[in-house]
Amino acid sequence: MKATLETLPTELLSKIIVSYGAHELLYVSCRCYDIAAYDLICSGVLFSPKTQKRVEGHSQDHRNVRAYLNFISNMNPGSLYTNSIEEYHLNLNHFHDNIRLHECANLADFISYFPNLKKLVLTLKQLREPERVHTTIGSSISCLDLTINIEYIDDHSTNELATAILQQYPNLNTLRLHRPDLVSSPGLDLDRQKRFISAFNKHIENNPGANLCKPTAILFKNYRGSPSFSRFERYETITNVNYIHIYKWNRKTGYTEATKSKSNALRKYYPETAGNQIGHPRRRRFSNDPLRRLEIEMLSISTQRLAYRDKNIAAELRTLIVQREDENAYYRNFCVETELYKLLDQLGNVPDHD
């Protein structure tokens, strides 16, 4: 007999739902719904649909978001279920034509439905003007631990995000902002990290009597993205190298970076990756030729040929390699070959390349 979700034993379905976090099965059938809902009520944890990595036309992703919004909107505030939720993983990384689905703002509104919420993990992916940040991130007076997974953010949204968190999460104790190892522009690089802290401090200073949160710690850390074969986008903070920054509150100076507390911060806030190496954003210095053999071998065959054949292109590659180190030190992604061919294109000298 062919096994189906309807014929699998309840214990096995429960194992799939609980151990692998496959709460999407909640939408498959009434039986799966009962098993998943029971698990969620008992665990106090709620998950929203993950973002599929390859969805033609985003139609399936959009349907999942609508179905989940319908599920959430039918909840009764003050019910046994809403009162039981203490941890919420809300994925708002749902876009169509680079515009966040309007259902995401509706979902964010329901964060306040959970009066005993202690931990919230928000996956945003990007925040850019003219998106209304205050509407996008929701609010909670009970939340103590807020995590935001984000990669792309502009200067305006960086300031808005700092203000929105201060105002809409007044009892926050821990704030974590997670990003990739390297971000594309405009992204949450080292400059925007400092801009965020500056905006945080400025808003607190300018509103001394306001009911604003003052987290014990504000943490910035890298995450590991999904492997190429994964169906869904996932964000995992267990990384081989930990690029972590921790800011602590000081009455005189506001939030300042605690550069000597990284090991302790990892053990306290990320114990599962605390044994791995701590990375530091620093520019690599070249005592010899930047275009050494190892660097050349990392380039495509056609670019290697150009470098060997044309000394001017080799010189440009040396400059770009040094520039890459400068950009990487600020957690910014920089592709030497892409920039080389952009430069050659501007000069009207684009050779054929693989």
From TrEMBL:
Xref: SUPFAM superfamilies: RNI-like
Protein name per the record: F-box domain-containing protein
